[in-house]
Amino acid sequence: MTETPEIVYCRNEDHTESVPAVARLSWPDGRFNPTTACAEDLEMIVSNSLDDGHVVLVEPVAEHESHAYRSYTVTHAIKELVRTHRREVGRDVRAILMEAPDQPYYEQLPETLEERQKLPARFHVPQWTESGTPQLWVCAVCWDEGSVSQWPCQAAAENGGEVFAR
Fold it and tell me: Kind and range of the H or E element at 24?
């Protein structure tokens, strides 16, 4: 028996009917709460965040075969966003960070720092910490009670091609 994947919907309250989401969006600086966006809203939301100088993380909603078109849609939307930004602002987007679709949530992380450091390099992505002093980029998985690793951590430095090459 195969499981039917849960459909994630766009959280835009202006939609008159439910529209499947193509991406999860989060802001490392905490400016907005994480949300989901359909293909129609994705470009506008990310563009507005970049225009306001805020980093936004874009994660495809599903990698399941029946939803493979969503990954394509997210990639296509990001390419369109980069073209639009270049045309309107006159310069390239410096970076768009995308977490791995299987990036573990806090509850899913191994218990010890040693186990976290051994996670695949694709999980060792930068995360902005605005609440700390000083404010800095830390590794999303290399932390332990009371300590964090400034990014790039050892795994990211040694395997940088795997961190961003997806």
Answer: strand 23-26
Pairing of strands 136-144, 23-26: unpaired
CA nearest neighbour of 94 among 135, 61, 126, 136: 126
What are the tens digits of pLDDT across the range 98-142? 677 778 887 889 989 999 999 988 888 888 777 767 778 888 898
Give ∠ CA 101-49-137 in degrees, rounded to 5: 60
* Amino acid 97: pLDDT: 67
Whether 10 and 20 have beta carbons less than 8 Å apart is answered as yes
Q: Give the list of residues 6+ apart from residue 113 with CB closer than 8 angstroms, or none.
A: 142, 143, 144, 147
Q: If we measure between CA atoms, which residue out of 71, 138, 73, 143 comes closest to residue 100?
A: 71
